[in-house]
Amino acid sequence: AQSVAQPEDQVNVAEGNPLTVKCTYSVSGNPYLFWYVQYPNRGLQFLLKYITGDNLVKGSYGFEAEFNKSQTSFHLKKPSALVSDSALYFCAVSPNQAGTALIFGKGTTLSVSS
Amino acid sequence: DTGVSQDPRHKITKRGQNVTFRCDPISEHNRLYWYRQTLGQGPEFLTYFQNEAQLEKSRLLSDRFSAERPKGSFSTLEIQRTEQGDSAMYLCASSPTGGGDTIYFGEGSWLTVV
Description:
Chain A is an all-beta fold. Chain A has no helices and 12 strands.
């Protein structure tokens, strides 16, 4: 079955420190990979995506993610965390087929302390 | 505001009543998606449309759920004979086409069944 795993329910980091939110996937073929962020009682905001090309993808608000095909991972990173980055982060995958909707992980709560 | 618009944002209904949610996608986006999200979980795919055609339905979409996109623009999601287990946030999203296009989400419609 196709799936996305976010192994950490919560990640805690101090402001100014680097952060990593982990994501691994299990799909056939060459997937498209996405990260979204959700603030309380809000919808999902798109951060970045990997379709093809350079394994390091840069996105909104200083976030980036690295695609690793051999490890089937797509970890989200940021060099220096801000308190305002505290939110719920979702990794999602779309198998490389026209018409297949996104499959989401369960989400990781990021808490950045000042 | 040119984002995905959902209405109503919040709905409280008694068990057994019918409810309808409306979604207005980003203009000229051909694809429209419905997801459901419960507390502590990632969004779960319900169904999607390519223009007015409903191309895929999840097994989560029971017979009590129906979605339409009559003119290929806005969409409605109706839940008949609501049950307490239907309490969730219903997210609408749209994208230009499929494949690796970014999917943009609305703010969601919260449903509470009492």
